[in-house]
Amino acid sequence: MAELPTGTVTFLFSDLESSTRLWEEHAEAMKEALASHDRILRNAVAAHRGHVVKSTGDGLHAVFQIAHAAAEAAVAAQRALAEQQWGATGPLRVRMGLHTGEAEARSGDYYGPALNRAARLTAAAHGGQILVTQATEALLRDHVGGDLVLVDLGEHRLRDLSRPEHVFQVQAAGLAKEFPPLRSMDAFPGNLPLQVSSFIGREREVVRVAEALAVARVVTLTGVGGVGKTRLALQVAAEVLPRFREGAWLCELAAVRDPAGVVGALAAVFGVTVRAGQSLEESLVEFLGTKRLLLVVDNCEHLLEAVAEALEVLERSCAGVVVLATSREGLALDGEQVVPVPSLPAPPADADLDAVGRADAVHLFVERGRGVDPEFNLTVENGAAVAQVCRRLDGVPLAIELAAARVSAMNPAELARGLDRRFETLAGGRRRAVQRHQTLRAAIDWSYELLTEPERRLLARLAVFAGGCTRDAAEVVCAGAPIDAPRIFDLLTSLVARSLVVAERDRPQTRYRLSETIREYGEERLAEHDETEEVRARHAEHYTDFAGRISEEILGPHQIEAGRRLIAEQDNLLTAMNYAIDRANVDLALRLLRNTPAPLAQVGYEVRLPLDPVLSLTRAPEHPLYAYALAAASIEAAQRGDRESAETLCGQALAAAQRLGDPDHDVATLVCVARANIAFSIGAVHDAATHLDRAVEIARSDGRIPYVATGLNGAAMFHAMAGDADAAVPLATEGLALARRLGIPSLIAMNLAALAGALADQDPQRAQALLRESVQLRAGLDYENWGELTQAVLISARLADWPLTLELVSRSIRHLHWIGAGPLLGAMFNVVARALTPPNPEAAAILQGAARHLTPATPPTARSASGASSTAQPGRSSDAASFVTELRRETTRVLRDSLGDQRLRALRAEGEAMDTDEAVAHALDAITHAHPVARQ
């Protein structure tokens, strides 16, 4: 339509919240209500010089030449909607999103990424809320103030998996100001990765797969390599995310070569380790048993039987887990729904330019072509050639991307001629379509042959990396004739420009990775050059050295950055360890294990290497690092609650250390930590403190100050829990001083909290200041540890700092619910109940009831391993459990006074009837209403 503005415009998208429910409950009334809704929105758009592009049933798309006119129209529409008398339906709540960008106007509609951005933004909003992107906010800055205010909501990942968006909320007189957290991807747990390129087409496939996930527990996307199965799976996962309370999780199997490693790869996604008396598979099933989540399992084709067996167990045992798999063939599971992924539609030979431009395959070609040549466009002159290229490539996305990457060096006609020659040879000289897997192979071959010899060799050598690599790693592992290390960055840049390597620039360090199809191709070429063994060995040695450097950095002021780098290389570290195990290289395996930071020294998500296969290597018991491996295994056993195995391993580690030597006292220190964990697990808090006191003595004797500071923190915490503040305060004070001197951020935060806990009775005012400093510091570190967070909640509750308690406890509840820590979750419910007694006694009473089936009837008392009582001071809580018990009794007294016995019993019974999921939802809702900060 001629009147639609072009160039940079602002889009206003709207959507009616809960429309499905309203139509089901008030079908007749909704007809009249929706007519009023449409009239209000259209009048507001027209009054502010906008254009309604189209109606979407329960919303509309409008466009404005001027950004502030779009914002004013949105405000006017929301005010009119709020003032309208709606009758039986009740008020209609409309969410709105504004985004500014360039889009192509064609046949009365718009096309382009800007529209997708506006749609995703709108989907993240709540009824009555107006959101704008940073691009729109930049144009509104000169028009805010007075009646119009923009509130910064921070960065959010919208459900298009592209870059995070800085989001702002429009506020004005007459509009609601407080809303729940945005419905962005950040509102859900999960690990779906950001994508470096836009998602094009596939609207029909997205709907089809989303519908399949609503009826089947296992859905498998099948198709040839390069057809876009992974990208489609990730996009669908983002689309259906709100269906799954515990979010969407990606397990990539491309780097897994051993069928026995499938369960381990699935468990690693969730950080699940073997629990006492269980296999890893049983531990995974127990963890996922109550979860409602989507599990995306990518690249299953080389492990079909093992994947099918693992997923069959999850399907049978975990009712809330839905699986979306990608494979070149189905998994043959009962109830599995296979969805073939077709190629992108390409235009027919007789299509006119408009039809060519509408084809998804052409859209992808043009979009990727602009990535290497910003001036590239579809024109009358090149349209037929572009269409021919897309047809010759059978609409296979990866093949199209490889061809489009050449538009800076060849025009589309030259590309078409080059492909013709390649495919004629493949098809025996006859001009006919070839099978799609041959098409892709031919496209990769053709792209490979156009490379220089150094580029070819680099592409092949990059195939040894799992999960990508940094430039530094590529320069170390891939250097060697005919590639000089200083040239590798230029060669990488060239391969990225040709779409053979993906550059992930959204990280602190750019990572370079191959798609699985290209990686497989590279492995073949690497074998042809007879370089596989040599490059894999260099890869393993490089990551062994890398782990050693990270171990040093993670105990210093750059700890958080080092932790992120460690996590980014998890797949490469596992690949290096698997190589060492496969080659029975005891020295390499044990050096890699020793160099990798112990889980207790890591921050955030932990990287764990397999210990049992290393300990089982034939010559391992004679290696100097064998005792260290046993000690590390003892800590893992203690952490999973297998006390008997942990104590056995401690004894074996000490015996091996005596036989082989323990020059750095690493083994003795780890055994102390393991035994502290064992003691704590049976309630022997005083004994746990004594073991860590010993660890501190050992570290002092060696001058290892970071280990001294770490041990002081743990010892102080355990002494405080045992009620021995006289011992805890000096330990925590020294630990804090050392942590500050070393500049280790997490250790400073931990020692601040430990000192706050130790001073809670002696000096509550100072303790409160220390705890708030700890919380503020940790908030800036961008990682959370559920144990430290829960400890902070208990300390703030002990200090009766209820605003801080409510600010922290919602995150603790989410973490504890996720890991299935029932007793601690019950403790948190009791803490929340006490915090809510003044503002919401009824919610508090319900939570008391909900806590009953989670909290042991008789809390364990702190006893030593020998059975003697710990040396707790009179009048002090001996541990967290007894403190929570006292808190519950205090809450009961307050609730009985305010509600009366009969009402209190009824509300408690209501809470006790809730399952854990319902109780968590009730707690989080009550916290949100009592403390707005807890919404974040």
The residue-averaged pLDDT reads 88
Large-scale geometry? globular
If classified by CATH, what would the architecture of the largest domain be? Alpha Horseshoe
Discrete helix count: 40
CATH superfamily of the largest domain: Tetratricopeptide repeat domain
- Beta strand count: 16
The largest beta-sheet arranges its strands as 2-3-1-4-7-9-8
> How many domains make up the 3D coordinates?
6
Q: What is the first-to-last residue Cα distance?
A: 43 Å
The biggest beta sheet is recorded as:
7 strands, mixed
Helix content range = 55-70%
Top CATH class of the largest domain? Mainly Alpha
What's the structural blueprint in terms of helices and strands?
Layout: E1 8-16, H1 19-25, H2 27-47, E2 51-55, E3 60-64, H3 67-83, E4 94-102, E5 104-106, E6 109-111, H4 113-124, E7 130-133, H5 134-140, E8 148-156, E9 165-172, H6 203-215, E10 218-222, H7 229-239, E11 248-252, H8 262-270, H9 280-288, E12 293-298, H10 304-317, E13 321-327, E14 337-340, H11 353-358, H12 360-372, H13 383-392, H14 397-404, H15 412-426, H16 436-449, H17 453-461, H18 471-477, H19 488-497, E15 502-504, E16 511-513, H20 516-528, H21 532-553, H22 559-568, H23 570-582, H24 586-595, H25 612-615, H26 626-639, H27 643-660, H28 666-681, H29 685-702, H30 705-721, H31 725-742, H32 745-759, H33 764-779, H34 786-798, H35 802-819, H36 822-836, H37 841-852, H38 880-899, H39 901-912, H40 916-930
Helix pairs in contact: 1-2, 2-3, 6-7, 12-14, 13-15, 14-16, 15-16, 17-19, 17-20, 21-22, 21-23, 21-24, 23-24, 26-27, 26-28, 27-28, 28-29, 29-30, 30-31, 30-32, 31-32, 32-33, 32-34, 34-35, 34-36, 35-36, 35-40, 36-37, 36-38, 37-38, 37-39, 37-40, 38-39
